[in-house]
Amino acid sequence: MGRYTGETVEEAVASASKKLGVAVDQLEVKTIQQPRHGFLGIGRREAIIEVSIKKAQKKDKNKGNHGHHKANQQTKVQQQPKTRHKSTPDREVDPAEMKRRHEQNVKRVEKVSQELADYLKNVFANLGIEVKPVVSDVRSHEVKIDLQSEQSGRIIGHHGRRINAMEQLSNAFMNYHGAEKTMVILDTANYRQRREESLHQLAERSVMEVVSTGQAVFLDPMPARERKQLHQELQENDHVKTYSHGRDPYRSVVIAPKN
């Protein structure tokens, strides 16, 4: 028995399999510590597992050619399919329990969102921008925060780069503080709606350019939500096709001739 580490549990298991020279399905694995990415590198930790070789596998390795037939018989017995118990209606989650869990998730997101609002207020204060973050539309995996300020232009930044960067930071904050997989939408002075309209116009202009020149158009990097809007708007277009290019946070949309 020994301990192995990795960035993920799967990576740790693969490392153990390689070092022991044994297939993964012949290992008994016990997870000692789940991995964590941390927040901006803080609190990061690796996965730790405890591994041992299954008993039948140990016996096969210790035996020589004498008794080989008996070992094969043991292996055949082990390879017989196990009876799996199908889930019964009794094991299904009760609707009342599902409701309770949902309400619990919403409360957790609401609590962490208020902490995030204070955090954002301090961050913008350090940038010399006075902001009043107002939390609204709290759901189990989504929350909207309106950054009320007389300096909305500075909050948005050039081509929305500052508010998009703060949005990514906010998502990491929620994940680190226990509200995993929660999408944060930051807005100020109705910027998001105005941005949707701008993207619609950008899509129309780009299609005209692609059709007239026969060349692909590479747009500026933008967050996933905005890329999704462009893909959806042009997916039924007969003249162009779209795809994403690059890696976040510099991933962008390419609009190219369909043929």
From TrEMBL:
UniProt xrefs under InterPro entries: Jag_KH, Jag_N_dom_sf, KH_dom-like_a/b, KhpB, KhpB_N, R3H_dom, R3H_dom_sf, R3H_KhpB
Composition-biased stretches, type Polar residues, lie in: 72-81
Q: Where is the composition biased (Basic and acidic residues)?
A: 87-107
This protein's name: RNA-binding protein KhpB
Q: Where is this region: Disordered?
A: 55-107
Q: Spell out the subcellular localization from the entry.
A: Cytoplasm
Q: What family is this protein classified in?
A: Belongs to the KhpB RNA-binding protein family.
Q: Which UniProt keywords apply?
A: Cell shape, Cell wall biogenesis/degradation, Chaperone, Cytoplasm, RNA-binding
Task: Quote the function comment for this protein.
Answer: A probable RNA chaperone. Forms a complex with KhpA which binds to cellular RNA and controls its expression. Plays a role in peptidoglycan (PG) homeostasis and cell length regulation.
Name of the gene this protein is made from = khpB
